[in-house]
Automatic annotation (TrEMBL):
Keyword Plastid: no
Domain Integral membrane protein YccS N-terminal: start-end pairs: 70-354
Native source species: Franzmannia pantelleriensis
A Pfam family: FUSC-like
GO cellular component terms, semicolon-separated: plasma membrane
Protein name, as recorded: TIGR01666 family membrane protein
Subcellular location(s) of the protein: Cell membrane
Length: 738
């Protein structure tokens, strides 16, 4: 194949949604060809609906796992479709079955993401079954089995394509997930470089907030990549290529730890070296390493060489700049040159990891390459996860109560108004009603706008192209567009699925008669979803902000404990250490998500908590940065009595973090910690001054513990503000605590 043609095709193959869209296209095309072959155009609608439900239920697995998930999905689809068919003539029984089934399916999602995906697809297929029955004016004369079987046939057809695809191209999703990781890391490094920009009066807090939010994107990408690799490694530990991607994943984790490290307050460095180029060199190096990560992502996708020469040159320039400063022998810089050296060493190690990521086969063998399995190991484990969520404090339980009530309200309205094509009300409610207000509001607006655009496009399509063949082709293209855009461009996705509906239903009836009912039902369904999430057990994020903040500090303490254990036992990237590090970053990302959702809630419910929460997020992410630096420089302390003497101080720091976390969890005022913090700082700073005078080399553990300790008082103050504005304590009580 000519190079001019092969390169665009290779780039197209690397796109995340290309394979997904191609599978959907094959499924829709097959269903369309079947309906033409048998001369029954009415087959298109149930087959298309089954394909859509099956594609929405698709889980990421090896082909064996996908086959197992498909069998479970088809079993759930069969029960749901047949139940709808049987209960349809009896509204009271139908309503009871709808409410109970919705609650049970939502609670099954508490077991894990795979079960949540299948449960969501089952609910969607249930409503598709209602729409299909309504379209035929009730249970058709040809028996109650025909329409459920057609829906299942469409679902099975897409599932078969999916399983075969997984068997043929099992590693392509892993490659794409790793590319997303390095792309997110690249963005993180480029944002981190802005902190070194040698400017005065810069809003550092805003930059740190942007960095904390991007850290959430990195954590999400790492978690998705880990799950993809883990599912494919089951039973395939000897697969050389999969093991290669596993090593690339571990390298990404190490890069993330070093990228998130902070060795010294940047404001102090800016003040000291404002008229020198060292901070510019740091900024340029981080920026070039971020660009190198993005180039590495492309290289992984395209199997092409990876060039990071510019970041290597930037590292050499930074080393030369530090040597120049050291050569000036200025006393006031003496203490600051040590953290600059540590920063350069950290970035040099990051540079070597970038080089090894493209050729991980030469990377040193790891003692522990196991991954933590978060899936339930037994039925008892699965039930325990559900049981722990059977409380009003669980967002899953709240949603499991809210969504059935919303659907029942839509069904009652449907029975009362008896609108034409009324089950679109339920479908809109199902798609729009989300576990929290912010997400529901976003989907509500986008659903309405997309529906209007889709109806206009549909009206134009069936007017300008009355030929059934052309309308069928438009329906197929619209279906592909829906799946290609449903995650990132929901307005386009909604417009596409609306266009598919109009063109498909116009094959067996009058599509023009569907335009106004579809718009009317969408508005009603969106209104019900909005009212439900606002009035029925609303999950205002501020109510659990203190718990999320407490989790951040609890997991940061666990990370600190593991780091200190590594200093005692010697550096090793074992599962316990990697899990503690990942839990700390997951908690940081979860807090960022909660605060982002809070900013989209009504002001009356948001109050001042969002601003105080953002302040806490900046402080907690700074704490995590210092912990990451401490972890990046970990080494065995057995041969260093001075460093070993710092271990008890680290334990005390962990205990103070635990106290702040406990106060946040209980939503009670925290007693003053200034005395303990000042005592710790005195014990940490006195030896540091002695070491500098004696010319003792820089001790990263001492410096980082001092920086961590300096975060405790601001964290305690921020925690008390969260407790106070959260309604747990009065200002008088807080004053008394101090």
């Amino acid at each position: 194949m000519p190079t001019t043609l092969s390169l665009p095709l290779r780039r197209l193959w690397t796109l995340d949604k290309f394979a997904y869209s191609l599978r959907v296209f094959l499924a829709f095309s097959g269903a369309l060809l079947l309906s033409w072959a048998v001369g029954d155009v009415a087959l298109v609608i149930p087959l298309f609906l089954g394909i859509i439900a099956s594609a929405l239920s698709e889980t990421d697995d090896s082909w064996q796992g996908r086959l197992q998930a498909l069998l479970v999905t088809l079993a759930c689809f069969a029960v749901a479709s047949i139940s709808v068919q049987w209960l349809y003539p009896w509204p009271w029984l139908f309503a009871a079955g709808l409410g109970v089934a919705t609650f049970v399916l939502i609670m099954l999602g508490a077991i894990g993401q795979r079960y949540a995906t299948i449960a969501s697809g089952t609910l969607i297929l249930s409503i598709y079954s209602m729409i299909n029955i309504e379209h035929h004016g009730g249970v058709p004369d040809d028996g109650p089995w025909r329409q459920p079987l057609l829906l299942l046939a469409g679902a099975a057809w897409y599932g078969l394509i999916s399983v075969i695809w997984c068997a043929l191209f099992s590693r392509q999703p892993v490659k794409q997930s790793m590319a997303r990781v390095y792309k997110a890391l690249g963005e993180y490094l480029m944002l981190k470089s802005a902190l070194f920009e040698p400017l005065r009066d810069v809003d550092i807090e805003a930059r740190r907030l942007a960095l904390a939010r991007q850290n959430g994107q990195v954590v999400e990408a790492l978690n998705q990549a880990k799950e993809m690799i883990f599912r494919r490694l089951e039973g395939q530990r000897g697969d050389r290529k999969l093991n290669r991607y596993l090593r690339i994943y571990f390298i990404a984790q190490d890069i993330h730890e070093r990228a998130s490290s902070t060795h010294y307050p940047y404001a102090a460095l800016t003040e000291a070296f404002f008229h020198h180029d060292v901070l510019f060199r740091c900024q340029r190096l981080l920026d070039q390493q971020g660009l190198a990560c993005r180039r590495l992502a492309k290289a992984l996708l395209l199997n092409r060489p990876f060039d990071h020469h510019q970041s290597e040159q930037a590292l050499e320039d930074l080393r030369a700049s530090i040597d120049n400063l050291r050569g000036q022998r200025r006393t006031e810089w003496r203490e600051l040159l040590f953290p600059l050296d540590a920063l350069a060493d950290n970035l040099a190690t990051l540079e070597s990891q970038l080089a090894s990521a493209h050729n991980p086969d030469v990377d040193e063998a790891r003692r522990d390459d196991s991954l933590f399995d978060r899936t339930p190991s037994s039925l008892g484990d699965a039930w325990e996860r559900i049981r722990l969520n059977l409380t009003l404090g669980s967002p899953t339980f709240r949603h499991a109560l809210r969504l059935p009530l919303a659907l029942l309200a839509g069904y009652a309205l449907l029975q009362w108004l008896d609108p034409e094509q009324g089950f679109w009300i339920l479908l809109t409610t199902l798609f729009v009603c989300r576990p929290n207000f912010a997400t529901t509001r976003r989907f509500l607006t986008q659903r309405i706008v997309g529906t209007v655009l889709g109806l206009v496009a549909g009206w134009m399509s069936i007017t300008l192209f009355p030929q059934p063949l052309v309308q069928s082709l438009i329906a197929v293209i619209a279906g592909v567009a829906f799946f290609a855009n449903r995650e990132k461009h929901y307005v386009i996705a909604t417009a596409a699925i609306t266009l598919l509906v109009l063109c498909s239903f116009n094959q067996v009836g009058d599509g023009f008669d569907l335009i106004w009912p579809r718009l009317f039902d969408t508005l009603l369904g969106a209104l019900i979803a909005g009212l439900a999430v606002f009035f029925i057990l609303p999950d205002w994020q501020g109510r659990r902000l203190n718990r999320e903040a407490a989790k951040v500090l609890t997991n940061s303490r666990g990370y600190l404990d593991e780091i200190i254990h590594q200093y005692e036992a010697g550096k090793q990237d074992d599962l316990a250490y990697r899990l503690a590090r990942r839990n700390a970053h997951n908690a940081d990302a979860a807090l960022s998500t909660v605060l982002t959702n809070m900013l989209h809630e009504p002001g009356h419910y948001r109050k001042a908590e969002a601003d105080d929460g953002l302040r806490f997020l900046v402080l907690s992410h700074t704490l995590l940065s210092h912990l990451s630096a401490l972890g990046a420089h970990r080494h065995r302390l057995a041969d260093d009595e001075d460093d070993a003497s710092l271990v008890p101080l680290a334990r005390e720091i962990g205990a103070l973090l635990g106290q702040i976390a406990e106060a946040l969890e209980a939503r009670r005022p925290l007693r003053a910690l200034e005395a303990e913090v000042n005592a710790l700082l005195e014990r940490l700073e006195a030896p540091a001054a002695e070491n500098i005078e004696a010319g003792v080399p820089y001790r990263p553990i001492q410096s980082q513990l001092r920086l961590i300790t300096q975060q405790l008082a601001p964290l305690a103050e921020a925690a008390n503000r969260l407790v106070m504005v959260g309604g747990g304590s009065s200002p008088e009580a807080l004053s008394a605590a101090h």
